[in-house]
Amino acid sequence: MTSTPTNSYAEAGVDTAAGDLAVELMKAAVAKTHGPQVFGGVGGFAGLFDVSALKAFERPLLATSTDGVGTKVAIAQALDIHDTIGQDLVGMVVDDIIVVGARPLFMTDYIACGRVVPERIAAIVRGIARACEETGTALVGGETAEHPGLLGPDDYDVAGAAVGAVEADAVLGPERVTDGDVVVAMASSGLHSNGFSLVRHILAQRGIGYADELPDFGGAVGRALLEPTRLYTAPLLRVLDGTHGIHALSHVTGGGIAANLARVLPRGSWVELDRSSWSPSPVFRVLSDLAGSTLESSEGTWNLGIGMFAVVAAESADATVAALTADGIPSWVAGTVSTSGRNLDGFEQGAKGVDGGAVRLVGGYAA
Question: Could you tell me which residue ranges the PurM-like C-terminal domain spans (predicted)?
């Protein structure tokens, strides 16, 4: 007698009960991001957010951003540490919204995995929720998708999208930048979430595992690499609510230092960033040494210690540096915007389809 084949979702590798348990484990953390503007709680088909406050705007503009954290997730998976990757996601998404001067309103996340392990999914989402709470962003929804056969049992990837709002006449960008404006650099917490394909390649070439310890890393390599992305939104909103004259912001992510700053400068302007104004943290120096290369050669890949730039009016530079530093974001003056004509050979001009200004780094890094 031949047995009758059974076809079920569970036999196909999808565990809906595990998905439900993951939601239960994350509900409390998600709820902490909800204010009175959020309707419906957790589990609805769509998140609902009351935007009545936008009625007070003269001309409200919505700002939106979407991103992931790249191959940094491979290190989290290898070490079975999943509670930091969520902050990386929020940093990559929400800190892009503040660049235009917008205040974040809400965010959604998406996790694709080969197998739902409730505790793992909940750890990821708790990290997202903690960072959303810190940035004043409501986490109004998300999706966990199980993809057996496409992803390995312990593989996953994360992505997210957020929406913010800004008054039309308060939008930051190249149009506000003028000759003599000062470029303020804000320190990164480490690699953030860019350039990890190069990091993993360097370590593999040298036969270094994530659990190996390197003295200059202060312990296990993988733990140092998982240092969460610094969040800039809340401190920058406090500065923007003051009188510090910020004209443009640039988030230093993919593309490196010069290219990202060039994107927010007007065409015809240029900046020389003084490398001697900061010292890249040990993680960058160690990785460069392991690669047998220089710090300068990775300026288009890693942030090398700068996570965000502010372009500010000259008379506001000192106050901006002081306010950000006092709020936990070490900051310093790194250059000045000029519109005088000069030969721009060797400068990075524009990026990501933006025909912006020109930037190059000069001098040597501080020890």
Answer: 179-341
